[in-house]
Design a protein that fits this description.
It is built from 2 helices and 4 strands. Strand 1 and strand 2 form a beta hairpin. The longest helix is centred in the first third of the chain and has 22 residues. It comes from Sandarakinorhabdus glacialis.
Length: 72
């Protein structure tokens, strides 16, 4: 019985340690994102390859979408 408790405690401990590392996927820093960051610093590059700032979303196809209105 004690073995099960010890194993369960260890598994929970390892799960809590590994969870943050798995929760944050690495964000790609593509050439497009580097150019967009140079023009409008302060944003992040999403896993889909979009560059997102507080007010705009820069899409890889060249479109820029305003986040406040959703318009281009």
């Amino acid at each position: 019985m004690k073995t099960k408790i010890v194993l369960a405690t260890l598994m929970m401990g390892f799960g809590m340690v590994g969870a943050p590392a798995l929760a944050q996927a690495p964000r790609p820093d593509t050439e497009f994102c580097a150019k967009a960051r140079k023009a409008d610093p302060g944003g992040i590059c999403t896993p889909k390859g979009e560059y997102v700032t507080a007010s705009k979303v820069y899409l890889p196809d060249g479109r820029v979408v305003a986040r406040t209105t959703g318009g281009e």
